[in-house]
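Re: that chain you flagged

S.,

Sorry for the slow reply, it's been a week of failed gels. I finally had a moment to sit down with the sequence you sent. For the record, here it is as I used it:
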Amino acid sequence: MPAGSWVAFCAVVLAAISALLALKKKTGLWLATFAASTVLGFWFYGTARLPTQPTSDQLALPPREALVEFEIQRVMQAENTYGNSTGVARVIDASPTSRLKKGSLIYFRLSRDDTTRLNIIRGLAIQVIGVLHPIPEEAVPDSFDAYLQETGIHYRFEQTGGVRLLREPTAFQKFCHHTNKKFQDHLRLGEPDASQLSQIYIAMLLGEKTELSDEQTDRFRMTGTMHLFAISGLHIGVIATVIWQVLLLFRLPSKVRPLIGLPLLYFYVEITGGAPSAVRAFLMVTFFWVSMAVQRQRSPLSALAASAVLVLIIQPLQLWQMGFQLSYLVVISILLFGLPLREVLWPVLRPNKFVPESNWSTYAKIKFWVMDKLLLLVVISFAAWLASAPLSAGFFGFIAPYSVIVNILLVNLAALVISGGVISLTVASLGLGGLAGFLNHSAWVGISIMDGLVRMNLTLPWAIIHCPEFPTIVSYLCVLCFMASIILIGNKHSPLLRFAVPPLVVIFALTLGLLWGSA
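Prediction finished late last night. Pasting the structure tokens below so you have them in one place:
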């Protein structure tokens, strides 16, 4: 629904009221008016920035031929078995009968032969004759068409005629593409014959999910662990930690480290295709590192909020993408529920409470370290599951109860594999291919264990609860009630109430959704 000019006026008035209430320290009223002014401001901004959606009548029209000029934004498959390339592109211009507007997004499929062979990478601008297929308005949930609609794409485009080059990609985009191909070769060094481990390795390190076989994709998807292959917070966080530790070894000042680390991290984001999830994670790390460099109070929640605002200013359509919703909800749940839960449990579970640390044996120190890290992983995985399970049920049609435990093991193994992969790529880039192959073998050991855990999980009873009819309205209500219970209860009540109510809210909503869907 478009917002009128009066919305901007209301946003300004509410923002002014918020400032006045903040001066008088009336926190509750300030929060309410600030939230209202933010929503109204983004509503007005979204009306100006969001592309006009096709009408139902337009999407009901039959496919038609069109001459389209577009710039490739994302390559999903560079070349499949039949020589086709697929991806997402932004329209530069199109014939009037195409119904496409300048700046709109389309999903393309190019059929290439020797006479029209182009290097299909990000930034390439071409003119193509093809057929536009409208995506049905009522797409099947959890289908590829539904995913395209979430990203603001309403037409598929299939090439039927010739291709004319309009503009080459930039030198930097070509360099990133070339580096990606070279890194794939580095990650295959020492690969055993007839092994599929390198496929998982490349998919995990470089986000090339097309490397995975259909069987592998189904296994990881049904166990709720497909996020390991989307370049996101896990990958960016692990690589950022590796870079930060290396910079610490060189004893560089805190103000200099972001100047070196952030360009390296951004280079990795571009090499892996610049996926929205990777950009979101990069922005969060950027805000966090910059706050450290300027010696401001470090706040992960503030860095998360700042990155979300910046992402939505640049790409408002991401608000409707499931990846955006899941990534931010999961991190908020970890920060507001998981980490506070650890602070409450650790004093109770902490070993050697009555023995001075100076008197600890080596065994006691190891036990302390293991229990500390294990508890941290348990609460993070539990908090992530609480935030993601409702949306997984409503949009993907399944609930994976054991993913809480499986993710604890897989995330740690994935972190080790990613760290080893970064070191292997660095070593191989220096010309030490033999050492890189050895490091790849150590990573493949971790990958084989991960694959075995996923296979074992699928054999357990109730490992996957299928719920294709789970109402999406219940999913969103569950998430809202879960977050509201965390915020409203806060520190004002006993720890038992604070950390028991939110999980009960999620369990109740999941049960309600399952019963509603089955009915």
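What I noticed first: Residues 362-396 form the longest helix (35 residues).

Talk soon,
D.
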